[in-house]
């Protein structure tokens, strides 16, 4: 965890300093921070992929947000 935190902290700091986002980075850019990054890293940091992979009850996944929206719609229609 400490190593991952340091790597991501460096990435975030450098992106902020250079006015870049994670989307601006290439695989080779990421590998300069850590050789742990592999060629599929770009797919893993895609926001849609991240949200699709979340499985926590009540979390921010597409399915969980849809469940909460439907619950609130039912509440508003049947107070």
Bulk shape = elongated
The arrangement of helices and strands along the chain is HHHHH
- Unreliable spans: none
Query: How helix-rich are the residues, as a percent range?
Result: 55-70%
Instruction: Report the portion of residues in β strands.
Output: under 5%
Radius of gyration: 18 Å
Biggest sheet features = none
Q: Quote the distance from N terminus to C terminus.
A: 46 Å
Specify the number of helices: 5
Give a verbal description of the structure.
- This protein has 79 residues and is an all-alpha fold.
- The chain is built from five helices and no strands.
- The protein has helices at 2-18, 27-31, 41-44, 47-53, 62-77.
- The longest helix has 17 residues, at 2-18.
- The radius of gyration is 18 Å and the shape is elongated.
- The model has no long low-confidence stretch (mean pLDDT 90).
Produce the secondary structure layout.
Elements: H1 2-18, H2 27-31, H3 41-44, H4 47-53, H5 62-77
Search tags:
79 residues, elongated
Question: Quick recap of the structure?
Answer:
It contains 5 helices and no strands. It has helices at 2-18, 27-31, 41-44, 47-53, 62-77.
